[in-house]
Amino acid sequence: MKRLLKIIIIILWCILVVIGLFGFWLSDQYVVPIMMYHSVNYEKNHEVNTIHPVNFAHHMEFLTRNHYNIIGLDELVEAIDHNKPLARKSVVITFDDGYRDNYTYAFKILKQYGFPATIFVVIDEIGKEGYLTWKQIREMKKNGITIGSHTRTHAYLPDISKEDQVEQIEGSKRILEKRLGRRVNFFAYPAGGFSEQIKGMVRESGYRAACTTNRGYSRLNKDLYELKRFRFGDEDNLDMILFVKLSGFYSTFKQSKAPY
């Protein structure tokens, strides 16, 4: 009996050691979640990732209710660049494409909660039906919204020529800066596609950082030019789902895609 008890104690200690080591390893895998939205609209657009304004408001209420620390992309980049720790439960909010409903619906909700966000706009779509106008962009820029580039035409960068890549990356930055009168620091790869060469072009163009989706193999977001983000939409309608995706460990267990 004593021998059996001793064996049980040894097994329990081994289990505790394994759990402790796993917990220690997992703590080093923590990554500040970057939320990625697209369209925020009452009408479902099946061609893009759309979230109903009520569900988007629920997401923002969830962040407030659970005391998440909402920071701007610039604060996250500064922390990564200088290896500064950020408070756990920090979160960044981003939008892709620059749909007009980002202003009509999302902007009002963000202002209600006092949350900063970054919107990556497709330059040649600005002012067209369904997309943000320059006037709306300037108003949001004055009220906590950072504007970044999502290329000129939403071209999938790995599939176009180097000359076209330059225009999509550098050209979009040049136009944005001229129209907004301020430096543009952030870029987002359409469909998340990039290569080492494209990353280098983004860096050399003067951007401070670039966002992808879940593409690439750098899970811990140490590389400022391939910051992973996670899509959020109507399917994320349960608090448990939000807890998991915003835990800071979601990327550890989520399968990554190739960069292109």
What attributes characterize this protein structure?
10 strands; 2 domains; globular; TIM Barrel; 260 residues; single chain; alpha/beta; six-stranded parallel sheet; 9 helices; two-stranded parallel sheet
| Oligomer state of the chains in this structure | single chain
Helix content: 40-55%
Q: Order of helices and strands, N to C?
A: HEEEHEHEHEHEHEHEEHH
CATH topology of the largest domain: TIM Barrel
Q: Give the strand tally.
A: 10
> Approximately how much beta-strand content do the residues carry?
5-15%
**Distance N terminus to C terminus?**
61 Å
**For the residues shown, what is the average pLDDT?**
91
Largest sheet: 6 strands, parallel
What is the overall silhouette? Answer: globular
The chain-level structural class is alpha/beta
What is the level-2 CATH architecture name of the largest domain? Answer: Alpha-Beta Barrel
Rg from alpha-carbon coordinates: 21 Å
Q: What CATH first level of the largest domain would be assigned? A: Alpha Beta
